Amino acid sequence: MAALPMAPGCLLAGWMMEKFGRRNSHYIVCAPLLLGWIFISCANNLTLMLIGRFLTGLCVGLLGPLVPVYIGETSEPKTRGIFLAAVSLAIAVGILVAHIIGTFISWQWTAVICCLFPILSVILLSAVPESPTWLIYKGQVDKGVTAYYWLRGYSEEAKTELQKIIERRKTTESETILTWREKISNLKSPELLKPLAIMIIFFVTCQFSGVNAIAFYSIEIVEKAVGKGIDHYVAMLIIDALRTVMSVVACVVCKQYGRRPLCLISGIWTGLSMIGLSLYLYWTDGKPTDMSWLPLSCLMVYICAISIGLVPLPWMMCGEVFPTKTRGLGSGISSATTFLAFFVVVKTAPRMMSNLGEVYTFLFYGVVALVGTGIMYFILPETKGKSLQEIEDKFRGIKNNKV
Hints:
By secondary structure, this protein is mostly helical. 79% of the residues lie in helices and 0% in strands. The chain is globular and about 70 Å long. The protein starts with 5 loop residues before the first helix and ends in a 7-residue tail after the last helix. It comes from Parnassius mnemosyne. It is a multi-pass membrane protein. InterPro entries: MFS_dom (IPR020846), MFS_sugar_transport-like (IPR005828), MFS_trans_sf (IPR036259), MFS_Trehalose_Transporter (IPR050549), Sugar/inositol_transpt (IPR003663), Sugar_transporter_CS (IPR005829). It is found in: Membrane.
């Protein structure tokens, strides 16, 4: 019920952020998110629980493209990577905190505590401005300039980038404002089609590498490695903590290294660890062994590898690669793709494990990771240290000395 509305939520968010702005759309999302947690906390029957899950799942979809787009448009090139990587860190911390709370108190009180976060978001949003790029594109140049300098300061680099944004706005003033129907029919433009194809392949590679299937069934995998009797809560919290630590590492390495090397390193090790886990299960065939450290090591390597590259990078680049005039549409479609793939993977994983067995299921995830990484080697652009305008010009085929 939570996964079903995520993909439509992404598409709706694409329209919302263009219509109402990036910050205002965040304000709007806080209302159904709060309502969803209230329904869950007060649920005394299945219907209320499902309504609450639907609303919270919808809000996850709404926030999917909103967050990276707002961060991408408000941060400077040299720090944009670490801020965008912090999205994955925030998700990991949120999961860890919710699981810690839920370990010690009832799910109803856990939901009550979760009600505080939409309220906190409204308070914090009041302290930051609307996206200057969106304001300038909508013709509110003075407000956009004020917001830009509040966010970026008055350095020469910042002034140069602002001038490019304003100049780009002037060149589009004579162009007819496109309706959403026209934007969809305009998908053939290379500055939208190229990054959209790249992001869809990137998101699908991440999801079909089994990231959420492994997260959902990691306890069962651990049980196969060390036998029954493991404390499910302890195993879950250890995995959550490892994911959180690696998300912190991702924030650091994303600032130091480019997107391409991180993608390649992450994808290769993700694939090899899954194939290694598959081979172990094939050779042991469910028999007791004194090599239980091997599948556990494969699982840990998998979580570490996928957390520094395949998981955060698509969300980071979702806020970077799309042109200003279709950023909402592009990020909405690509984000919807990942939630659609997420739904398919989680729904098919149990059937694959029962029909094909864990060996071939994990082998499939590993092969997808390696094949997808190979494709990304040829098509993934490097965006580290480049302004959003430079990235857009790259896809438009405009020559630039810095690209």
